[in-house]
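Q: A reviewer asked whether we had any structural model of the full assembly, not just the individual parts. We don't, so I'm hoping you can provide one. Inputs are below.
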Amino acid sequence: MYPFLHRRKNRLWIFITVFAVVLVLGYKQPANADCGCSIGSNGIYVMGYEFSATSCPAEPPSDTKSYTYLITPINCVGNKITKFTSYGDISGTPASIISFYTSKGYRILRNPGGTHFLLIQNGTYPFTGSVVGLNMAGLPAGVYSTDSPEKLNQYCTQFSNPIDQDGDGYPDCLDCAATDPNSGYGCTAPCEKERQLYIEFCGGENNIINWNESQCAGMCKEQNFGPTCPIQ
Ligand SMILES: [Ca+2]
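A: Here is a predicted structure for the entire assembly that you could use as a starting point for your response.
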């Protein structure tokens, strides 16, 4: 057998094996189930504020970089974080916002980059329900995250920038699959492996984009490779 063909056959088996493993392990629940809430035992549905930065996080992320944030008062309506009205915007660093609002008693849920905050009210009429799966009852002022911190990359109510191509609330720069509305977090590693293997098998990304069937050896039936891993 020609060494080239032998190598190609080995690659085919590696491809099939890894694809099967990725399919089994890489399946994720749709990300759109997030931005959820529930009302607590005191019946208070007024939650506080959502702050959504109008630009992407600094690289590397920094809590001392200044952003402009849209301010949205939010309520919990029908188990969804819902816009109540608009308050315009504010400029500041993640550090300054955290410092100011914790001093006012707020419980702050933040994304890793510091571009998205949910400020949950406390005091006389505290919100005691859950926010993105986190139970707020009795929680003191402070900074909190969720079990998967990237869940909080999903903006819940309003924003126009950064761009969100698939409309799932995760801006492109915070979305692990920017053209798949069912994937917003938790898919980077398996998707990237799957994508790289696909590109390698087909002898380069151009062969996929231009759909070179002989290079792809009959393995690649669609330009978009599976529901969670589009070629971007
Ligand atoms: Ca998105």
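A: Points you may want to mention in the reply: The helical segments are 3-25, 94-103, 188-201, 205-209. Residues 32-165 form one domain.
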